[in-house]
Design brief:
alpha+beta
Length: about 575
């Protein structure tokens, strides 16, 4: 491969000494922040430096920002023990803002931590066998899998595969343990100042892997860099179909950035899975764009090469041919809320967590209620891809008492929450995320309740419509595949997208740009009315939008009853994606 130019971030990674930087020295100074070089390196440690944007405008001219940190713990497959959950809960007060944030990748985030909190926070997590290493940064991120402990999934061992993949791709550097644990290693046994897979510059960009169970797309498998779908026949695991090239983020003003669903690549036996994944990650390491980070995800390499060329390159690396992918079908994308039988003697309860935020607010004492359940019943905890929580391993009596205990703390069961609210998702956005251009988590409850009121008035309040909101177009709440999505455009305004699949198998389309928050539901009202009047039996809202051509400016079948503005189509003569730097086949 020829020598290529590297971005500043790549130069910082290469000179960091395998993620050491000068973090130790800066931890001991009195500044509340880190240098820009160490801010890059700290992301690999699961730490993002931010500032409190709620107070930014009130600062005196020239005053330093109120520096805070987000710390993310990687939870492969979302699986936690009672003791681990209680440790996380205690740390929310000791080194956070009294809340826990469940992410759409089955991880946990602490917000509003201070620089002086970081060592205690990370060391305590590590003692409980929870790591932040690789939860952020340009490496394989937290590995997802279907969290439901149903008998068929337990037999296949999806959670075990997620843990094995996470262990295999976790960075090997000793720096993490030397900096935060004084050299002690509780989470991984092997660590050294070398990276046999990643090298000195790690990956060009973040890399996401997820495992799905047949017919159940609860993890949004097509949004992953690599999606892994188990092939189960007569209760036995035959292998996995792999998808490659998914990713939902884009950048406003950059038409060469775009959301993309993953393509089928190949079929592999269980014993070959890690080797093939390593080959895929290795190709991305060697040929992904290291000059333009906006073009650095695997999806752009796949889009530039095509799946066939990518597969050829992978087969060259492995030294053998790969089998064709198996046909896939999907019947559900459920987040497994409510009460479910786990096995012959046990149950699990799916608890809705609106916006993924575990907190005590007003009469809803969610955090206190979950702590009471943990201390009394000692259940297992599973974080879901929909920012919710499963409480597992409950007896017949305990499952009743768990629901009752939560209701005593104001936490309603899934069956008593309107569907639009129940299935909504949001990214954190303001006041913590430095990329956010407007609100998301803090305003989505207002928007979904207004939307539910509109649906109730139309007599279709029982319809389950998947709604997602983000404070920017980077896609953290996976809005681009939702039936309705509100994507932050600027302060108080959103681009509105409709027509995604409820099963996560289709991207939505842009309906209107730059819509004020107070106008979002009004904009959708004519479409919702038409959906009530003209839908087919069992037709989802997203499918109806697709059939009606809503938001599709080029569709001859577009329903002209909807007075909805549509964007100008992209001039394909002006559309020139950036080249993939170094993208020459070996």
């Amino acid at each position: 491969m020829t020598s290529i130019e590297h971005s500043l971030v790549e130069q910082i990674k290469a000179g960091s000494g395998f993620l050491r930087g000068t973090i130790v020295r800066e931890l001991d100074d009195e500044k509340p922040s880190f240098s820009k070089e160490n801010v890059v390196v700290l992301k690999f440690h699961g730490i993002t430096e931010e500032d409190n944007r709620d107070v930014r405008a009130d600062l005196a001219p020239g005053a330093n920002p109120d520096v805070i940190f987000m710390v993310r713990a990687a939870i492969p497959g979302g699986v936690l023990t009672t003791e681990q959950y209680l440790a996380l809960d205690r740390l929310a007060d000791q080194a956070g803002n009294g809340t826990l944030r469940l992410t759409t990748r089955q991880a946990v985030q602490f917000h509003h931590a201070r620089k002086t909190d970081l060592a205690t926070l990370i060391r305590t997590l590590n003692q409980r066998l929870v790591t932040t290493l690789g939860a952020s940064g340009d490496a394989v991120r937290n590995v997802m899998s279907c969290p439901a402990p149903l008998p068929d999934r337990a037999r296949v061992g999806l959670a075990t595969f997620a843990e094995q993949i996470a262990d295999h791709f976790r960075p090997r550097t000793r720096a993490y343990y030397d900096i935060w644990m004084n050299g002690e290693r509780a989470v991984t046994a092997a660590a050294a100042d070398e990276e046999p897979l990643y090298g000195r510059t790690y990956l060009p960009r973040k890399f996401k892997i997820g495992l799905a169970f047949p017919e159940d797309n609860c993890i949004d498998v097509y949004s992953q860099d690599v999606g892994i779908i188990a092939d189960v026949r007569s209760g036995s695991l035959e292998g996995f179909t792999l998808l490659v090239g998914g990713g939902l983020g884009r950048t406003h003003g950059r038409p060469d950035t775009f959301p993309r669903l993953a393509d089928p690549l190949c079929f592999v036996a269980p014993e070959d899975l890690l080797e093939v994944l390593e080959g895929i990650v290795g190709i991305q390491k060697d040929f992904g764009d290291r000059l333009d980070r906006k073009q650095a995800r695997l999806k752009y390499l796949i889009d530039h090469w095509g799946v066939d060329i990518f597969k050829d390159a992978l087969e060259q690396r492995l030294g053998r041919r790969l089998a064709a992918p198996q046909p896939l079908s999907w019947t559900d994308a459920d987040d497994h809320l409510g009460v479910h039988r786990q096995d012959a003697g046990r149950w699990f309860v799916g608890v809705p967590i609106e916006g993924g935020r575990i907190a005590d607010r007003g009469d809803v004492l969610l955090r206190t209620g979950l702590r009471a359940v943990a201390e009394r019943f000692r259940p297992g905890f599973r974080l879901t891809p929909g920012q919710n929580l499963l409480l597992t391993d409950l007896t017949d009596r305990e499952r009743v008492d768990v629901v009752s205990t939560l209701e005593d703390h104001g936490v309603l069961p899934a069956g008593r929450i309107p569907p639009v609210i129940l299935h909504s998702m949001a990214c954190p956005a303001l006041p913590t995320c430095p990329l956010a251009v407007t609100e998301s988590e803090r305003v989505l409850p207002e928007v979904t309740r207004a939307l539910q009121t509109e649906l109730d008035a139309l007599g279709i309040g029982e319809e389950s419509i998947r709604v997602r909101m983000t404070g920017c177009p980077n896609g953290c709440a996976r809005p681009q595949s939702a039936e309705i999505a509100f994507v932050g455009r600027r302060k108080g305004r959103y681009d509105v997208h409709v027509g995604g699949s409820a099963l996560g198998t289709r991207l939505n389309v842009l309906l209107a740009e730059n819509v004020a928050r107070e106008d979002l539901v009004h904009l959708l009202s004519p479409i919702l009315t038409a959906y009530r009047d003209d839908r087919f039996d069992g037709e989802t809202f997203g499918d109806f939008c697709l059939r009606s051509g809503v938001g599709d400016a080029e569709s001859a079948d577009r329903d002209e009853r909807f007075p909805i503005p549509t964007p100008d189509p992209i001039d394909l003569d002006e559309y020139r994606p950036s080249p993939i730097h170094g993208a020459t086949l070996p």
